[in-house]
Design brief:
61 strands; 8 helices; 7-stranded mixed beta sheet
């Protein structure tokens, strides 16, 4: 295995850890069918010792004493900061602020097995990384702070003993690492801010995706049709033994319910110390086929097990989805054959106070918020983001535009070389996510860069590239990229010839700016997307000139910095979500004589103190003409009392919303940002506690200025360093927020919030045990049951592809033994002579099944299934009359005798009768779907009867599979 790009150039950042974790290859308790191999993956997030900055002595050595260091968990930021970045006075280049380094120490026990490979896998460290194991230098990684990488530490560990890991995380200014040395509109927070794993494998194992082009697992779907799709999987395996090894790979395609649909097997001898890439391709068809889309984000699993001499030694599993997309004149962006206009937001990963050190639970929850708003695309600005957020987008159905870390300017040859490497790593690491559709291939604001376009297309020719342009400099079309991606904060001109997306457009809490831009871009089929700047408010440094005056935190996003929805969020819901909604905007948007109501109903009636103000249709404004559901603006000077809005469809009230005029603060209401997921003990997980200041009517007082003091008891702590003005917490639009983390012990946690003059409030949560075994934690059952497909016919039959043949003559072979289950036997009998038909020309789906079969002219046909394992099964039988110049038989009765008793039913799955024997059109042949229950002992019989005399009764084949 090649190592990820490592260099000995940096002598900066160091992280050190000192707590013990035992890593062994014991038999794991895994769900049904999940492979148990030599691979282990242990989460190392908890229990580190940390020191910020320089220190006397040699912290990388085994004898160094770290007893006075701070105990921390990962994700970890070097330094907590205030909501307003400590009011620091520094320019966008950020040469000094937070440009420090930190040491982390930890002791890990690795099981006795010197034949294993051992790796440390990092998901992200700002900005460069230096690693020691047991006092010995392993190497440096100083390519980029936003990408994943790993170190091979096999030669440095002591098997069966404690092993000291020391990491120096260096966030100091480095002009060779993008986005340094230039100004950026985002802060380079420091720390070991994403997950860290210890991985052990056999010397025969699947490599890391980012090792090189043919490395790890690469999944593509080269053909996607309406009823079927082809998936191609490349899996690269290395043999790091000094002798060749006989290797086999078994790859299973698994549906969302866990059932194996296809199994692909290949074998090869891999020479000593070499790699081999297995290339496997198969197709999914008919009822097993589903596309991935924002409406139905159907995910399959690819589970590949590597065998050495028939012993399972390694495995990998990835999700994928079938989707196809292209740009079509007159239609715009077309996904799975259907035009779709993309609406969403830009996303920065950081949160106030903690910077980029965001737990996985927050990544998923934020994606879920955007999905609930009805959005279908997220731009990851302006850098590679956490894999956990992309997994959430896969699962929820959010398309993604991802880009490498840049902003406005670029550097020298070395700088570009590292950016190119970071781009390749980003693509290789994230290429299997079906959510990703666009890669950025430009410098943000400046437009397309040939080098980045070429690198991106070399790595991934299947996705679209976006130019990352602006209307104030550079070319004003897509250039060498696929899509002209521009910015629009006022009213810029469209490209004259290319497909265009507004990758950044203006946003306002009252949604007026969002509506203007989205409507404008929806007006042309050349425009494919409108992506607001931005999803959640974020920190940025003040400019170092007098051209603009800006705050340290933005205030115009769809969500607050703590991810609390603003009024504009509810407009997105009214525009994009089909469920009826009516929402009166709060007083941050309903003010100055205008009441804003967001609804997807035909009319809204607004009442004040139960007196009708007016009944209106949506705003009839040229700036909103292309929207599905413009807002409703009522001219009313609201000074007191209650507003009630009724959403009306076809004259009938379907939904309503009530809002009181905000009064003085009365009490506090608490809630957690995540309430439906486990809160894991150990310290690596977080929860936000939101304290809303309410009046006597339960309305949030958005103008309140109270300070809120939080306290905590039980197995939790407040995230605060005492110097960042975190607690007491300041209100933003009436809500104060604070982070809590757990102790190492699972248990009850109670948070109390107090504010002068208000009644205090408590809220409780229970933390759960954190499982460090990543394989066990993420494993899902695999139901690997046979799918039996049998094509019946006489001699010289043409057997349907990938089906097994049951070939017979008029006098023999009425029994078929099948090896899918032990002693499984199928028997055909009749009260009349059975005749076998060898081949006719029949067009249509499953035409080769339809073209032959067995039949009886006067009697019934009985299919008997013997020795079928206990369980429930789907059976689909086919009954097309294949002989020419005959009238098809569309009337069949089926009588089933199984473990549940007898069931008689007509053959009614074909809906419309078949009229010709030579074709079934694009349909399957006449078929019957049945559900069978086997007790594992008694035979099952299925009797087919014809309802009309003088018609032949046919059986062409069948499919039998577990329910």
């Amino acid at each position: 295995m090649e190592k990820s790009p490592i260099t000995l150039m940096i002598k900066h950042i160091v992280l050190l850890f000192a707590i013990t974790v035992s890593v062994s290859a014991q038999q794991k308790k895994l769900p049904q069918g999940y492979p148990n191999t030599d691979r282990t993956k242990t989460n190392l997030n908890n229990g580190w010792k940390f020191h910020l900055g320089n220190i006397k002595g040699d912290p990388e050595t085994i004898g160094f004493k770290d007893s006075n260091w701070t105990k921390v968990s990962i994700p970890h930021t070097l330094k907590l900061v205030s909501y307003e970045l400590d009011s620091i006075s520094e320019g966008w280049e950020q040469k000094k602020y937070l440009r420090e380094y930190g040491w982390y120490r930890k002791t890990v026990t690795i099981a006795e097995n010197s034949n294993k490979k051992v790796f440390l896998e990092f998901e992200g460290v700002h900005n460069a990384t230096e690693l020691w194991v047991n006092g010995k230098k392993v190497g440096n990684h100083n390519i980029n702070g936003y990408i994943s990488f790993h170190f091979d530490i096999t030669d440095h560990v002591k098997f069966g003993q404690d092993n000291l890991i020391v990491i120096k995380a260096d966030n100091r200014f480095d002009k060779t690492i993008a986005p340094d040395p230039h100004r950026t509109d985002y802060v380079k927070f420091g720390g070991l801010y994403r997950d860290l794993y210890l991985v052990t494998t056999n010397k025969v194992h699947v490599t890391y995706n980012w090792d090189k082009f043919d490395a790890g697992v690469h999944i593509t779907t080269p053909t996607v049709n309406k009823k079927n799709g082809t998936v191609s999987i490349k899996t690269s395996v290395t043999n790091q033994n000094n002798t060749s090894k006989n290797c086999k790979i078994i790859t299973k395609i698994i549906n969302a319910e866990g059932y194996v649909l296809k199994k692909i097997i290949q074998q090869i001898k891999i020479a000593a110390n070499t790699d081999h890439t297995f290339r496997q391709t198969t197709s999914i068809t008919d009822d097993d086929f589903h596309t991935w889309s924002p409406d139905i984000p159907y995910l399959y699993r690819v589970n590949s097990v590597i065998y050495e001499n028939n012993k399972p030694v390694d495995f990998v599993e990835n999700n994928f989805g079938f989707r196809t997309f292209k740009l079509v004149e007159g239609k715009g962006f077309v996904l799975n054959g259907e035009p779709i206009f993309l609406i969403g937001v830009n996303r920065h990963q950081n949160y106030p106070n903690i910077g980029d050190a965001v737990p996985n639970s927050f990544h998923y929850n934020e994606a879920l918020q955007y999905k609930k708003a009805g959005m279908n695309i997220i731009r990851l600005s302006h850098y590679t983001q956490d894999d956990e957020f992309l997994k959430a987008c896969d699962e929820l159905g959010l398309l993604v535009y991802e880009e490498p870390p840049t902003w406005i300017e670029w550097g020298d040859k070395l700088w570009f070389s590292k950016l190119e490497s970071a781009t390749r790593t980003m693509i290789r690491n994230h290429r299997n996510h079906p959510s990703i559709v666009f890669w950025g291939a430009g410098i943000n604001h400046r437009g397309p860069v040939p080098q980045m376009q070429h690198v991106t297309k070399e790595e991934d020719p299947f996705r679209l590239t976006a130019s990352a342009s602006s209307p104030w400099n550079g070319i004003i079309n897509s250039g060498i990229t696929d899509v002209y991606a521009t910015m629009d904060y006022n009213r810029t001109q469209f490209a004259e010839s290319d497909f265009e997306m507004v990758m950044e457009h203006g946003s306002s809490p009252n949604a007026e700016s969002n509506q203007f831009h989205i409507s404008r871009y929806k007006g042309s089929k050349k425009n494919i997307a409108a992506i607001a700047w931005l999803g959640a408010d974020y920190n940025h440094l003040q400019k170092n000139d007098n051209q603009f005056t800006r705050d340290f935190m933005t205030n115009y996003a769809v969500l607050s910095a703590y991810r609390v929805p603003k009024p504009v969020y509810y407009w997105y819901q009214s525009e994009l979500v089909p469920t009826p909604i009516v929402h009166i905007a709060d007083e941050t948007a309903s003010k100055n004589g205008k009441i804003r109501v967001y609804s997807n109903t035909q009319e809204v009636a607004l009442y004040h103190n139960e007196k009708l103000i007016g009944k209106q249709t949506p705003d009839n404004d040229i700036t909103k003409v292309n929207l599905n559901h413009p807002s409703f603006t009522f001219l009313f000077d609201w000074k007191e009392g209650v507003l009630r809005a009724e959403g009306i469809n076809h004259g009938i009230k379907t939904v309503e919303h009530t809002r009181h005029k905000e009064d003085t603060p009365h009490h506090i209401s608490l809630h957690f940002n995540i309430e439906d997921k486990p809160f894991y003990a150990g310290g690596s997980d977080l929860r936000l506690v939101h304290a809303s200041i309410l009046d006597k009517n339960g309305e949030i007082v958005t103008s309140a200025t109270n300070a809120v003091q939080f306290s905590i008891t039980g197995e939790g702590v407040i995230v605060d360093n005492g110097t960042a003005n975190i607690n007491p917490a300041t209100l933003f639009n009436g809500v104060a927020s604070i982070y809590i983390r757990t102790t190492e012990t699972p248990g009850n946690i109670t948070v109390t919030a107090k504010s002068k003059g208000l009644k205090s409030e408590n809220i409780a949560i229970v933390s759960s045990k954190f499982n460090t075994d990543e394989i066990q934690k993420n494993a899902r059952p695999i139901f690997d049951y046979p799918i039996i497909k049998v094509d019946i016919g006489g001699n010289e039959q043409l057997v349907e592809h990938e089906w097994s043949a049951w070939t017979g003559t008029n006098s023999e072979n009425h029994t078929l033994k099948h090896n899918a289950y032990k002693n499984l036997t199928f028997k055909i009998s009749s009260n009349d002579a059975i005749k076998w038909h060898k081949n006719s020309a029949v067009t249509g789906e499953l035409g080769f099944v339809s073209a032959d079969g067995l039949y009886t002219e006067k009697g019934e046909l009985k299919l008997e299934i013997v020795h079928l394992e206990k369980g429930e099964y789907y059976l689909e039988t086919y009954h097309h009359l294949a002989k020419r110049n005959h009238k098809p038989n569309n009337t069949i009765e089926v009588v089933i005798n199984d473990a549940l008793g007898q069931l008689a039913k007509p053959a009614d799955d074909h809906v419309v009768n078949f009229q010709h024997t030579t074709t079934t059109g694009e349909r399957k042949p006449l078929h019957v779907k049945s559900l069978l229950t086997s007790d594992g002992t008694n035979p099952i019989t299925i009797v087919f009867k014809k309802k009309k005399e003088n018609q032949e009764l046919w059986l062409n084949g069948f499919v039998l599979k577990r329910k």
